[in-house]
Design goal:
globular; alpha/beta; 626 residues; single chain; 52% helix
C-alpha cells in the first residue's frame, strides 16, 4: 500500500500514535487499529483518522476506511492525502462518481502531485458524461496539460464532454453533416468560430486517439474550412490570433495520427499554394505554418531549420510545431548511432523491417507506470535482474518495464532503426538509464551468449516467418524458472480484420500511405457493415502506422488457444495468467468453477468460442520455464 501519510512534525505525537505508525509500517494492522482507537479517546486529530483509514483499507474494510477519511477531511478540508485515499476506497468498491470527486479534490488542492492526476484520469477514462461539469473540466485541464500523465484511454470521456459543452457543442453537432458542402453552409451561419477556442477541447486535442470515426470526419471538415479561410485570408474569430490556437491544436492531432485523414483534390491544390507561401520566408505566419502542419510533416520543408529557429516556443502555442521539427531532427541523428546486435538476412524479417522503417509502431507519448501484474512479476523486483524485450518497437513496453524494474538490466531489440530511435529519444527524455536499445532480428538471436530472467515479446512472434522457431530461440535464452510475457493474435477475434485483409489482397490494394487513406475512405464499398463496425473499435484504425499494422501488414500469423497450449507443452512452459481485467477473469471463473486458477487453456478456448471478441487485443499472457 502506498504510504500517503503527511508530515506530522507540527503535531505533538503521543507514544500510542508513534507505536501505531510502527505497527502500520510492519503491516500489523490489527495492532495499529487497537492503538489508534485508544488514541481517539484523547486526540481526534486528522492524522489519527487518516492512519485509521490506512489500516482499515489494508484489511479490506472499505466502509470503515471511508468513514475515517470523511472524519479526517471534516477536520481539514485541504487534506489532499485523505481525499486521494478516499478516491482509492471508492474506486476499489466500484463507486466511480465519488472516486472522481475525491481525486478531483486532491488534484485541486495539490495540483503538483502527478499521482493524483493519473488516478483521476484513469477513473474518468471509463466514463462517458451526459453533462459537462465545469469544476471537473477545470481540474482535468490541469491533468491534460501535464506531459507526464498517461491519457491513452481518455478520448471517450473527453469527447462526451466536448460534444455536450455549451461553447463548442454546437460546432460538434455539425459532425452529422453528410458532406463538406453541408458543413460549410451551417458553420458559415455562426457569427464567428470563437466556440472552437474552448480550453478543455484545445488542451486535449491531439493528446490521444479518439475511437470514433464521426469525430475524424468532423476534424476533416474543420481542417478544410480553416485551410480555405487561411489561404483566402478570411477572418473567422473575434480575436484574429485565435486562429493560431485552433490550427496548432489541430496540427497536433494530425501529426499524432500521422495524417491518416484523406484530403480532397481541392484541398491538395490549396495546400500547394499554402506550402509555396510558407517556403517563401524564414518566418511564416504561425497560422499558415500550423495549417500546413495539418496536412504534412513540416520538418521535411527546405526551410524547416530556419523556421525552427524563429518559432517562439516555450509556453507559447508555437511549441507544438517547434516540437515536431525538433524531435524529428533529434531522432534522425540517433538512428545512425544505433548498434546492430545481429544481421538481418531473412527475407520476411527484411520486409517487416522496411514496413516499420516507414511506419514506426506504435504511436505513443506517455508510457504507463503501472506494472502489468504485480503478483506475477513481484519476484523480479530484486536487483540484478536481466530482461530482454524482443521486438520493442518504439520502446513503450521497454520503458514501462524500466519503471516497474528500475534496478534491472534491460536489453530492447527491434528490426527498425526508426522505431528504435523513437524509443531511445523517449527514454532519454524521461531520464531512464537502464535500457540498452539495439537493432536485431529475433531469428538471429540464437547465437547470443546470454540468459535472461524475463523475456517480453508482445505482438511480435506472429510477424516472423516461423513464429514457433522464433519462440524457441527466446525460450533457449530464458533462465530456468524464468518468466516470459507473450502476446499473439487470436484467429477468432480478428474475423473482421481477416475480411479486410482478404479484400486488400484480392483487389491488390497497395500498402503505401495514400492507398491506406483511400481504403479507409471507401471502406463501405469493400466491407460489410458488421465488419466495418468491428474494425472501427480498434484504436489502430485511427492512425496511419497503426492502420498499416492492423490491416496491411506484410506478414501475419494467427493462433487459437489449443495451438498455444501445444506449443507451451512442447517447450515445457507453464501457463500462469492472462493479461485481462479482474472483471473478465471473474466472469470466466463464474462460468468455469472447476478452473479456480483460470489456467485451463482448453476451458478458455471453449469460453472464447462463446465470446469471440474476448481477445481482440491479442492473447497476452505470462508463462514460466519449468
Amino acid at each position: 500500500m502506498r504510504d500517503l501519510r503527511v508530515s506530522t512534525s507540527d503535531v505533538e505525537l503521543s507514544q500510542n500514535y508513534k507505536n501505531a505508525m510502527i505497527a502500520l509500517d510492519a503491516c500489523d494492522y490489527d495492532q495499529a487499529l487497537v492503538l489508534l482507537q485508544k488514541e481517539l479517546e484523547g486526540d481526534a486529530s486528522k492524522e489519527v483518522y487518516y492512519a485509521l483509514a490506512q489500516a482499515y483499507f489494508a484489511k479490506e474494510d472499505k466502509v470503515r476506511a471511508i468513514k475515517s477519511l470523511i472524519d479526517a477531511v471534516r477536520l481539514d478540508k485541504l487534506y489532499h492525502e485523505a481525499f486521494a485515499l478516499l478516491g482509492d476506497c471508492y474506486y476499489s468498491t466500484k463507486q466511480g462518481i465519488p472516486a472522481i470527486e475525491s481525486y478531483a479534490q486532491a488534484v485541486a488542492i495539490n495540483p503538483q502531485d502527478e499521482q493524483y492526476m493519473q488516478k483521476l484520469v484513469d477513473v474518468v477514462s471509463v466514463f462517458q458524461f451526459k453533462k459537462a461539469n465545469p469544476n471537473l473540466k477545470g481540474v482535468l485541464i490541469e491533468c491534460l496539460a501535464c506531459d507526464n500523465i498517461d491519457v491513452h484511454f481518455f478520448g471517450r470521456p473527453w469527447l462526451s464532454m466536448v460534444s455536450r459543452d455549451a461553447t463548442i457543442g454546437p460546432f460538434y453537432k455539425l459532425s452529422k453533416c453528410k458532406n463538406y458542402a453541408a458543413f460549410k453552409k451551417h458553420i458559415q451561419s455562426f457569427p464567428n468560430c470563437d466556440g472552437l477556442i474552448e480550453p478543455f477541447f484545445l488542451t486535449g486535442f491531439g493528446r490521444f486517439i479518439i475511437l470514433d470515426y464521426t469525430f475524424e470526419v468532423w476534424c476533416g471538415y474543420i481542417r478544410r474550412y480553416l485551410l480555405e479561410s487561411i489561404v483566402e485570408e478570411k477572418s473567422l474569430f473575434s480575436d484574429p490570433e485565435d486562429i493560431d490556437l485552433i490550427t496548432c491544436a489541430l496540427s497536433r492531432y494530425c501529426f499524432f495520427t500521422d495524417y491518416v485523414m484523406d484530403a480532397s483534390p481541392e484541398e491538395v491544390a490549396l495546400v500547394a499554394k499554402l506550402e509555396k507561401r510558407v517556403l517563401a520566408t524564414k518566418n511564416p505566419k504561425l497560422s499558415d505554418l500550423a495549417c500546413l502542419a495539418c496536412y504534412q510533416r513540416i520538418y521535411n520543408l527546405d526551410n524547416a531549420g530556419d523556421i525552427y529557429k524563429n518559432l517562439q516556443g516555450g509556453d507559447h502555442v508555437s511549441q507544438i510545431l517547434k516540437t515536431q521539427i525538433e524531435e524529428y531532427q533529434t531522432q534522425d541523428k540517433i538512428k545512425d548511432k544505433i548498434e546492430a546486435l545481429t544481421v538481418i538476412h531473412d527475407n520476411v524479417s527484411s520486409a517487416v523491417r522496411e514496413q516499420y522503417e516507414n511506419f514506426p509502431y506504435p504511436r505513443w507519448t506517455v508510457a504507463s507506470r503501472h506494472a502489468f501484474n504485480k503478483d506475477v512479476v513481484r519476484e523480479l523486483q530484486k536487483g540484478g535482474v536481466k530482461i530482454l524485450n524482443a521486438g520493442c518497437g518504439t520502446g513503450k513496453e521497454a520503458i514501462q518495464m524500466a519503471y516497474t524494474f528500475p534496478d534491472a538490466e534491460i536489453t530492447a531489440v527491434d528490426l527498425s532503426r526508426s522505431s528504435l530511435a523513437y524509443g531511445i529519444f523517449k527514454a532519454e527524455q524521461m531520464g531512464i538509464k537502464n535500457i540498452t536499445f539495439k537493432q536485431a532480428d529475433i531469428m538471429e538471436l540464437g547465437g547470443l551468449d546470454e540468459q535472461y530472467d524475463y523475456i517480453a515479446s508482445a505482438g511480435v512472434l506472429h510477424h516472423l516467418k516461423d513464429p514457433k522457431a522464433g519462440w524457441k530461440i527466446l525460450y533457449d535464452l530464458l533462465k530456468p524458472n524464468g518468466l516470459m510475457r507473450i502476446a499473439l493474435y487470436s484467429r477468432h477475434a480478428r474475423w473482421a480484420v481477416n475480411d479486410a485483409r482478404s479484400v486488400i489482397q484480392n483487389k491488390n490494394i497497395g500498402s503505401d500511405a495514400q492507398s491506406i487513406r483511400d481504403f479507409r475512405k471507401n471502406i463501405k464499398t469493400h466491407l460489410k457493415h458488421k465488419s466495418i463496425k468491428n474494425i472501427e473499435h480498434f484504436f489502430d484504425y485511427y492512425a496511419l502506422p497503426e492502420c498499416r499494422d492492423l490491416l496491411f501488414h506484410v506478414q501475419e500469423h494467427q493462433f487459437d488457444l489449443i495451438e498455444i497450449k501445444e506449443i507451451l507443452d512442447t517447450f515445457g512452459l507453464e501457463f500462469l495468467q492472462f493479461y485481462l481485467t479482474e472483471d473478465l477473469i471473474r466472469k470466466y471463473k463464474t462460468h468455469n468453477p472447476d478452473d479456480e486458477s483460470a489456467t485451463n487453456l482448453e476451458s478458455w478456448a471453449a469460453w472464447e468460442e462463446k465470446n469471440p471478441n474476448l481477445f481482440a487485443s491479442m492473447y497476452t499472457f505470462w508463462c514460466r520455464k519449468t
